[in-house]
Design brief:
mainly alpha
């Protein structure tokens, strides 16, 4: 199964009238999860999310592809 990099947010049973609304809902939930956390706590939350969602995906080849794409977007100072 290839990695889906197209917008794919939805909530079962919820009808959206604009294509971007589910993404907005996701972003709002992510920001809310980080509210009132220290930087260290936010980093821990992110690490836990990566592990939980990676376990949910389960397909190692998809996860490797995701890691590769995500790393390409990181600016390094060398």
């Amino acid at each position: 199964m290839p990695l889906n990099t197209e917008p794919h947010f939805f909530e079962p049973g919820v009808r959206y009238f604009r294509d971007y609304t589910p993404g907005d809902d996701f972003y709002e939930a992510l920001i809310e999860a980080h509210r009132d956390l220290t930087d260290a706590q936010s980093q821990e939350l992110n690490a836990r999310l990566v592990l939980l969602l990676s376990n949910h995906i389960g397909d190692i080849s998809v996860l490797r592809e995701a890691f590769d794409i995500a790393r390409r977007g990181v600016v390094t100072t060398e």
